[in-house]
Each structure stands twice: as structure tokens, then as C-alpha cells.
Amino acid sequence: MSHHGSSAEPARDRAAERARSFGAVADVYDRARPSYPDEALDWLLPAARADRPLRVVDLGAGTGKLTRSLVARGLDVVAVEPTPGMRETFSRVLPDVEVLDGTGESIPLADGSVDAVLMAQAWHWVDPDTAAPEVARVLRPGGRLGLLWNVRDAGVDWIARLDRLLPGPGEEQLGSLAPRVGPPFGPVERYDVRWSDPVTVESLLDLTRSRSWVIALDDERREEVLADVRAQAEERLRRTGTLALEYVTRCSRATLPG
Question: Which domain covers residue 98, as residue numbers?
Fold first, then answer.
């Protein structure tokens, strides 16, 4: 048993280190990462209330990619983000939204104070055994946990080639097909939204630079990867005259009883 514990610890430490590595590239992350389609948010959020706007937590908010879409809907949004570099960028971009220091396992909000908790590109970083009860604690009865990931659609030929260049550990893929939530939530429902994001060669390179495994490379290897991506993108542009990333937004939702 102790052997299992010792092998799990370094993996958890490495995951935490990789999660923190995003802080160093917060600005490039903010420029590069795609937003989220309205159809996904329509499905994830609970029904609007007549008496007041829904109060929604963007958990692991990063630089506020998802937050912007929630604010645009007129929701009452509070952001929670553990990385200081990300919170700094967030406050510059969204000065009117409260951003708090916290994690999925420790949310600095009162019991039963929010209608929904959304988490984009991040549930795979949390320990669901601790995070699910903590999310449940801050939700009102009948409240909603919504999880979403943008995953490149590898069914599109040039994106499949790009994915071979950008192997990495595929952290966006981890758990996005069947994320584990667990008690006290009910069953997890799943929904996919397919959409297309026009990109430029430069924004595609920024997206590549924002991947945690690319951040960890030495300079020489990183430049090789970027040169490969540039070559693929320029060839695609020559052949078709357009450049777009095809995405699937994988959505999961779970509702608190009551």
C-alpha cells in the first residue's frame, strides 16, 4: 500500500507543477486559448431565475476566457483561481469581476451561496473525492456543476497531423470523455458541441506555446516544435486559403439533489 502512495505523490506534485507553469505564460495563454460556444453554456447552466441573475462561480478561471462569456450573459459571476500570474492577467482584463484565490478542493465562498459552478479545462487537475463535496457545499440545493473542455477535433485530417506534432500528455483529453464527479451529485450527463475557430499562423503558434508540455521543453526543442507547427499551418493555408481549428467542446453536468 505504501508503495502505491509513494508512486502517486510525485505524479500529483508534477501535476501541480504543470498547473502552476501556466502562470508564467498567462498573457500568451489569454491571447491564444479559444473561447467557448454559446450552445455549450446554454446546456451547462441551470434555468434563469425570475427574481435575480444566476450567481455563477468560474472555478479555475485562469485568465477569464469562460468568465467573459458568463459576464456577457448578464450573470452574477465570481472567479476562483489559484495562480497569482493568472489572477493578475484576469484582473487586468476583467477589472469589474471579483477573482479569489482558491482551488476546486478549497473554494473561499459561503455554504449554499451560488446557483452554479462551472469549470473549464480544469477538472482533471482536481481530486474529485475532495472537490465534489466542496463544490456541493457552496451550491444551493438543486445547484449545478458544469464541466467543459475544448478538444481539437482529430477527425479533421490536418488537425490529426497537428496532433501528432503536439503529442504532449493531452491533458485536455484526460477525463473529458467521462469525468468522475461522485457524491453528493447525481449522475453525470454528457453533451458535445462541434464548432470552428478561425486562426492565424501566429495565433496557432501562441496556442502551441501555451501548452504545459511545450512550456516545459528546452528552448531548442521548443523552437523545433514551433517550426513544425508553422510549416503545417502555412501548407494548409496555401492549399485551402483558410486556417481554422475544428473543436469539440465536451460538456458534462451534474445536479445537486434538492
Answer: 2-255
